[in-house]
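Please fill in the sequence for the structure shown.

STRUCTURE ENCODING:
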């Protein structure tokens, strides 16, 4: 895990250095607008990396809390750009201060059946009912749909990222706690001196020890009875820690590939040009850029197979392909919402950068799909 974080740290430092060199020595050959946009993304990645690295090192609870705070901020930005009426505030209270924290509590406890249904069943039914009780029917369907969409995208979908840390799968052979058999009497040997001889004591099987040495026999029997349980307890700790680290690396794999797909698809769209996907939604995204960026993400994901618990390399490649496609879908969908509301960004977390939701839009779409791919490939019961 530390090696993976180190690789990402080196990549970010290299990209920052290249950006600085291009800014001062690139001249007219470098598009200043493109360079500024890339610099803003780098600042966001540094901030995201620092937050995630700190949460990973502090443990599962810190990671879940971090994503809960990110969900709260993202939902706030979403609701801000989709104005509501005064009669919606009581429903929003339930959304922000009941369903959002409860969702992440269930995720932290690993209660899959509960956090899988809490929002898409109970919350999505309560929101329109609570708004209706206020007696305001003006654009009722539009208002409730906005709240439901924000809750679904910014809370429910994003919560599947930390939910990866609660996965319980059939451990692969190298992580399974070894079954330590108790040695047989023939396998136990002791350093026993020959009586009446000045010869150097030699190792002898227990079965050859004279019955008169009752003390030695009693000690051997006790050692044999306790050997298995002691070794079992000693080996269980490393296996448990390794399993936790495997889940953390699964989440790290997701975050890294989502960010890579975002930047690579955007960069190839600007470099290759070609056919625009939806000019009125995103003026620079092209099919050629999507294909080239996705191919690079699949290659990188396959190369990182060693850092995942996937049994086969093609499973890491399939997961990378799904992440890249869903990240693209998330970026396009959130861009459509911004165009509909006539805003450039959802918020201003960093100057010239945008808000939290601008950086997490791809993750909101890819997290639930990747989560269930992991459940299928790893045989989660």
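FILLED IN BY: designer on duty
SEQUENCE:
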């Amino acid at each position: 895990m530390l090696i993976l974080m180190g690789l990402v740290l080196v990549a970010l430092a290299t990209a920052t250095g290249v950006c600085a060199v291009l800014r001062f020595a690139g001249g007219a050959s470098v598009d200043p607008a493109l360079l500024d946009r890339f610099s803003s993304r780098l600042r966001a990645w540094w901030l995201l990396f620092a937050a995630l690295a700190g949460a990973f090192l502090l443990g599962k609870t810190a990671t879940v809390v971090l994503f809960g705070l990110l969900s709260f901020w993202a939902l706030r930005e979403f609701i801000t750009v989709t104005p509501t009426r005064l009669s919606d505030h009581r429903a929003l209270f339930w959304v922000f201060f009941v369903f959002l924290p409860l969702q992440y509590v269930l995720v932290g406890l690993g209660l899959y059946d509960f956090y899988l249904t809490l929002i898409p069943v109970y919350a999505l039914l309560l929101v329109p009912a609570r708004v209706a009780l206020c007696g305001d029917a003006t654009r009722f369907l539009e208002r409730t749909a906005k709240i439901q969409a924000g809750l679904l995208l910014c809370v429910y979908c994003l919560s599947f990222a930390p939910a990866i840390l609660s996965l319980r799968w059939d451990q692969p052979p190298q992580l399974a706690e070894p079954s330590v058999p108790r040695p047989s009497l023939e396998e136990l040997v002791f350093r026993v001196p020959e009586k009446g001889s000045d010869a150097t004591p030699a190792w002898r099987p227990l079965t050859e020890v004279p019955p008169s040495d009752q003390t030695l026999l009693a000690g051997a029997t006790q050692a044999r009875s306790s050997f298995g349980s002691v070794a079992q307890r000693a080996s269980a700790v490393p296996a448990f820690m390794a399993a936790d680290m495997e889940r953390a690396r699964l989440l790290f794999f997701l975050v890294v590939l989502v960010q890579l797909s975002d930047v690579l698809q955007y960069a190839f769209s600007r470099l290759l040009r070609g056919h625009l996907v939806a000019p009125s939604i995103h003026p620079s995204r092209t099919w050629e850029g999507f294909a080239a960026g996705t191919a690079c993400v699949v290659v990188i994901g396959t190369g990182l197979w060693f850092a995942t618990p996937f049994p086969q390399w093609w499973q890491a490649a399939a997961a990378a392909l799904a992440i890249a496609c869903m990240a693209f879908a998330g970026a396009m969908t959130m861009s459509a919402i911004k165009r509909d509301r006539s805003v450039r960004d959802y918020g201003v977390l960093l100057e010239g950068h945008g808000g939290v939701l601008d950086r997490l839009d791809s993750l909101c779409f890819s997290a639930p799909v990747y989560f269930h791919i992991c459940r299928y490939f790893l045989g989660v019961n």
